[in-house]
Prior knowledge:
The protein is an alpha+beta fold.
Amino acid sequence: MSKPFFLRTWPALAAAAVLAGCSLIPSYERPAAPVAGQWPDAKTTGTTAATTLAADLDWQDFIGDTNLRSVIRLALDNNRDLRVAVLNIEQARAQYQIRRADQLPTISAGVTGSRQSTSELTKSVTSSYSAGLNIPASAAWELDFFGRLGSLKEAALAQYLATEEARKAAQISLIASVASTWLSLQANTELLDLAQRTLATREDSLRLTRLRFDNGATSALDLRQAESLAAAARATAAQQQRLRAQDVNALTLLAGQTVPEPLLRATEATPSASLFKDLPVGLPSEVLTRRPDIRQAEQQLIAANASIGAARAAFFPRISLTAFAGSASSDLDNLFKSGTWGWTLAPSALVPIFDGGRNRANLESSKAGREIAVAQYEKAIQTAFREVADTLAGRATLGEQLQAQQAQAAAEGERAQLAELRYRNGVASSLDLLDAQRSLFAVQQQVAQTRLAQQQNQVSLYKALGGGWTPPAQKTQEKQAGL
């Protein structure tokens, strides 16, 4: 009594599975970070080792204004660029699943039949029918002895994980862009109010100067200078109105919909000092490896490294298998009767002999691709190091700059009040008053712009340090990949 088909073939299949574990992928080693071990001017920036990195701080905890948090939630739900990043993940995951399925046989169920004339003299016709399970020649199962399919699977997995990191980087960039644009809107709204108040003040001064000119108490030069300053304030007010409208348009694009008017203003209960949470800064070795863009670059490097394994495997024989197990008969009526069971097993091997140097060129291309990925990974680290260093330098100096300008604005405010009092009492000339008003307006603008730069620098620092990323659903990458 002959053994069943499975019992006769399982040793060969098991051996194939063991051999398929071979891999020609080069051993991966993470390149050394081409940056210093400390941030520049660590003493002046107040940098200390962090117990909780920015990458572990959710954006909801970092941002203190409830209106800004609501705008960011709108953007996370509706922004089209972020939606594309999510769909890229789905596409990359499907490509990985395709590569993983290539390692398994494609088994089909089918029924075939044929009739053939065997002789023109006798006009005899032979028939054959079969039904069962088969691995067709069009989808022959490649026995991955040298790890070609495994290398392609590893490359696809790394590309999938790279898109995961790209999605995280896109979300952090979106949060930072929304926060920065919203802050710009608040600053331009403040500057618009300042320009309108200054315009009203200068129009009052113009009316007073014109009255004094009509009564012969001042010269035409004073009148023309007052008219010039009033016109300048009017132009500035129009400019700030345009800039504010552009900020609203930019925020609408980022949010993916029209932002409700109440959310365009800062929450009254949120003081400026608590708008953002203070961020601790760790060492470059701790911070840079947590940034999604750097992790993305590393996954792309891993994918390029795995591609070398697939290119190396192309030099070795490619062994494939077709098989059939089922019922076969020359009579359709007897197809499923006893005694018609049968099977076929047809392995084949293709050995590359001459390909015009295609495999060699493909291997060299894969090696060059890995070197490109190494350079891109190192460049990502260097770019991230500079971004963090720039924002730390801003944090160390913008606070002092803002305090100095606020003190200057207070002094200029008192000067303008004294100049106006002296002018109304006829002690000082109109030139003194107009000069004081012009200086006060310029310093007040600088205060608003420096405050904006300081707040935007806090957002940039949060982004540069890796930001906090909260997934929409609590799933691990392995579960998403189906591992």
